Amino acid sequence: MRNFCFLFIVILWLCDPAFADDCPARLVTIRGESLSPLLHDGASVMMEPASCAGAVQRGDLVVFRTGARDLPVIKIAKAVPGDRFAVAADGTIHVNGENAHNSTGTPYTLPPSSRAVLESYQRNYKGVLPAGTYLLLGDGANGTIDSTRIGLIHRSDFIMVGGQP
Fold it and tell me: Which of 12, 93, 119, 145 is within CB 3.0–4.6 Å of 100 for a Cys-Cys bond?
C-alpha cells in the first residue's frame, strides 16, 4: 500500500470524455493528508481542466504532474508569476514580503535540511517567480511533496485548477 503521507488525488470523471472539449468541471477526491486541516482525506472539490482555466490566483487548488510521483498531486498556489518569494534565515517562507501561512494561520517554516531547493530558485531568479511558474504548497506548515521539495511548478504541468476551497 502506498504511503499516504503525501497527497494524491483520484479524478472522477463526471461526464462522458467525449465532451472534454466543453471543459466541464470534474470532481476531484483528495487522497492523503497534506492538505489537512484545510481538506481531509476523502474530501471532494470541483475543478476544471487546466487547459480551460483562466489565470491561477493565490489560494487556488492545482492538480499537477511531477516526476517525483506516479500519481498527480494537488496543492495550493501560494505565489504566482511576478510575486516575490524568499526563504528567511529562520526557514519561514515569505511571499511579497509577508509570511506565507497555511489555513490555520501557521507560517510555513522549513527545517534547515529542507531549504535548499527553494533557496536555489530564490538565488537563480533573484526572488521573483518567472512567467509560467508557481509556488505550490500543501497545508502542512513544514512542507510535503510540493515546491519545498521539487521546486517551482510550471503551468504546463497543471492538469486541473480549482478556486479557493
Answer: 93
Domains, the chain, ordered by start: 8-162 (2.10.109.10)
Whole-Å CA distances, 23 to 10, 16, 83, 139, 150: 18, 11, 29, 28, 29
Distance from C-alpha of 62 to C-alpha of 56, rounded to nearest angstrom: 8
Helix, strand, or coil here: 127?
Answer: coil
d(CA 108, CA 113): 14
| Cα(26)–Cα(102) distance, integer angstroms | 25
Q: Cα dist. 32→5, 35, 94, 162 in Å? A: 6, 8, 26, 18
Over 70: is that where the pLDDT of 66 sits?
Answer: yes
CA-angle at 130, arms to 157 and 150, nearest 5°: 50
> What's the whole-number average pLDDT of the chain?
86
Residue 64 burial (CB count, 10 A): 23
